[in-house]
Structures are given as C-alpha cells and as structure tokens.
Amino acid sequence: MFSVTLPAARAQAATVETPTESAVTKSMRRGRVLVVDDDPILGQACRNVLSDEHDVTVLTSGADALERISGGESFDVILCDLMMPQITGMEFHAALARLVPSQAKRIVFMTGGAFTQASRDFLGGISNEWVEKPFSMQRLREVVRSVVE
Predict the structure, then answer these.
(1) Which of 13, 14, 51, 96 gets the highest tally of CB atoms within 10 A of its CB?
(2) How far, in Å, CA of 149 to CA of 47, rounded?
(3) What span, in angstroms and rounded, lies between the C-alpha atoms of 61 and 94?
(4) Mean pLDDT, the chain, integer
(5) What b/e sequence results for 107-137 when a residue is b if at least 16 CB atoms lie within 10 Å of its CB, and e otherwise?
(6) Topology of domain 30-148, per CATH?
(7) Nearest partner of 61 among 45, 46, 39, judged by Cα
(8) Rounded Cα–Cα distance for residues 114 and 102 (Å)
(9) Which phi and psi angles does 56 have, rounded to 5°?
(10) CA pair distance 54, 47, nearest whole angstrom
(11) Section 48-58 average pLDDT
C-alpha cells in the first residue's frame, strides 16, 4: 500500500477564449459575391477561397456582369478587375453607376497596377476599395467580409 500527497489546488484565473476562424465565419452573414475578371484561373481561385463563407458567381466579362445585374440580380460585393478587354473595370463602374448606383458602391477593384494616368486618377477619385494583385487570399477574405457587413 502507498499514499500520494498533492498540494492544495489554487484558484485558477478565468480563461478568456478568443474566437476561432470558424466561430467568426459562423457569426457573419453569408453574402452574394460576384467576381468579374477576364482571367478564369483567378476567378476560380477567388471562388475556392470565398465559397465557404459566401455564395460566389464568377464571370469573365464585364458585359455579362452588366447584363445579369441590369436583369435584376444583386450582389453584396462585386470583385472587379480594373484592366479587362472589351469593358474595363472603369467602364463597368460607370455603366453600373448609371444603371444601379447602389451596386456600383459595392465594387472592390482588383488591379495588377494602375499603369495609366486615367486608371490612377480613377482609383484616386472613387470611394470604392481596391486590392493590388498579387494579394493574399486572407486579405481578400477580410475585404469581402468588411463590405458584406
């Protein structure tokens, strides 16, 4: 036979739990996100990163996006490439501002660099957020969350 002697237990300080990523995800509203980028690989990457938290539609043409929105679809966030063929992000924004101004305010521009004076002036003259490519997917999640909320 043997005996074990342990010291008396001390009162422990209350622990404060910090919310985990999944807790943050569960507490936020699921948004509708439109990605407009002529690069289908980037569009798919955005869908892969955001689809756990949001419903994501990917289009490779600004004209297609304008058609869907003018047809009555609405989105909480529109991620739009600034420099695309046919319709640039600047032209897309101008058309959307005429058609559905509330949706134009929800555009977040993605740019690989504002190479022209017109694009630099445009980004400097709007209140919309924009992210510079290459951006981290964590940064993309944060921007989308802030616009959805």
Answers:
(1) 96
(2) 19
(3) 15
(4) 86
(5) bbbbbeebeeeebeebbeebebebbeeeeee
(6) Rossmann fold (3.40.50)
(7) 39
(8) 25
(9) -115, 130
(10) 9
(11) 97
Where does the pLDDT of residue 116 fall: very low under 50, low under 70, confident under 90, or very high at 90 and above?
Answer: confident
Using the structure block, give the residue that is written with the tokens 């134009």.
Answer: 104
Distance, CA of 4 to CA of 134 (rounded, Å): 61
Residues in the chain: 149
Contact indicator for 113, 132 with CB cutoff of 8 Å: yes
Indicate the pTM of the whole model.
0.80
Q: What percent of the chain has pLDDT over 90?
A: 71
Give the start-to-end residue ranges of the domains of the chain: 30-148
Question: Which has the higher per-residue pLDDT, 55 or 112?
Answer: 55
